[in-house]
Amino acid sequence: MAILEKYQRDHYSTLWIQTLQVGIFQFSGLFAGAIIEKKGYMFTAILAGVIYTLSFLISSFLPVIEVLYLTIGVGTGISTGLLAVVAVGIIPLYFDKKLGMAIGLTQAGVGIGLLVFSALNGYLIGTYGLQGSFLILAGIAAHTIPLGMLLHMPHMHTQKAKNEITCKDILVATERHSLLADDTEQLKGKGYTFRNKSSIIYLCTCCPPISY
Predict the structure, then answer these.
(1) What pLDDT is stored for residue 7 in this prediction?
(2) Over the stretch 21-49, which tens digit does the pLDDT of each residue have?
(3) Which among 20, 67, 83, 138 is least buried, having the fewest CB atoms inside 10 angstroms?
(4) pLDDT digits (tens, 9 = 90+) for 111-123
(5) Cα–Cα distance between 114 and 121 in angstroms, integer?
(6) Bridge partners (DSSP) listed for residue 164
(7) Rounded to whole angstroms, how far apart are CA atoms 187 and 194?
(8) In terms of C-beta density within 10 A (0-12 exposed, 13-18 middle, 19 or more buried), how is residue 133 classed?
(9) Distance between CA atoms of 141 and 108, rounded to whole angstroms?
(10) Which helix (H) or strand (E) element contains residue 10?
(11) Cα(106)–Cα(58) distance, rounded to whole angstroms?
(12) Among candidates 153, 143, 137, which has minimal Cα distance to 43?
């Protein structure tokens, strides 16, 4: 409503900002997973924080509705989409027990945040105007950058990754249709442990890799 009054445009023109934001937010999950897979949760969260902050910052200094299509529509849509995937995806790395409760609390936090920011946005616009509100929101969004730096991989999962057996490792050891004693010792030297020979052969059929 504030954008409608500020720029004196029709409802259709201003509605495109929210349409782009929601649409890109939903679509961003497609490439968010690829970024997380390659760069990790920390990098993805920091990248989202930078995009989020710049989107509001540019909007405060370039108050043109065409710019808002890119900043508020595309920019905040991408950043919030990345953060949403990070917030849900990283939880299983920290919680083995009560995982459902942890995910539920995360989603409840999203709902509470929407309620709080709806009231906050109304207050900021009424007090500081649209441009001032964007500037303050840029400062709030910037907090996601240091918070993203806290998203380290838990120690138990970094240790688990070191002891992960891949199908390639097993196939190399079994390519002669038998598992030789020196093959077993070589894998054990890398930190792998085995119960018996048959269990190793069974691992050849498993994908994704299984830790033993």
Answers:
(1) 60
(2) 889 998 888 888 889 989 999 999 999 99
(3) 67
(4) 898 899 888 988 9
(5) 10
(6) 211
(7) 9
(8) buried
(9) 20
(10) none
(11) 30
(12) 153
CA atoms of 30 and 33, how far apart (whole Å): 6
Q: At which residue do the structure tokens 């995009």 appear?
A: 51
- All CATH 1.20.1250.20 domain ranges of the chain, comma separated, are 2-153
pLDDT of 204 strictly over 60:
no
Strand runs labelled E in the chain: 164-165, 210-211
Tokens coding 71? 């900043």
Which residue type occupies 49?
Answer: G
Q: Do 151 and 86 meet the contact criterion of CB atoms below 8 Å apart?
A: yes
The per-residue pLDDT for range 61-105, each reduced to its tens digit, is: 877 788 888 998 999 999 999 999 998 888 888 887 888 888 888
Spatial CB neighbours of 176, under 8 Å, sequence gap ≥ 6: none
Q: Side chain identity at 140, as an amino acid letter?
A: I
Identify which of 24, 27, 28, 6 has the alpha carbon closest to the alpha carbon of residue 16: 24
Taking CA atoms, 66 is separated from 53, 74, 132, in Å, by 18, 11, 19
Residue 7 amino acid letter: Y
User: What Cα–Cα distance (Å) separates residue 120 from each residue in 117, 138, 173, 197?
Assistant: 5, 14, 61, 63
Please name the fold of domain 2-153: Growth Hormone; Chain: A; (1.20.1250)
Closest CA to 169 of 135, 108, 212: 212
Looking from the CA of 164 toward its CB, the CA atoms found within 13 Å total 15
Confidence band for 141, pLDDT divided at 50, 70 and 90: very high
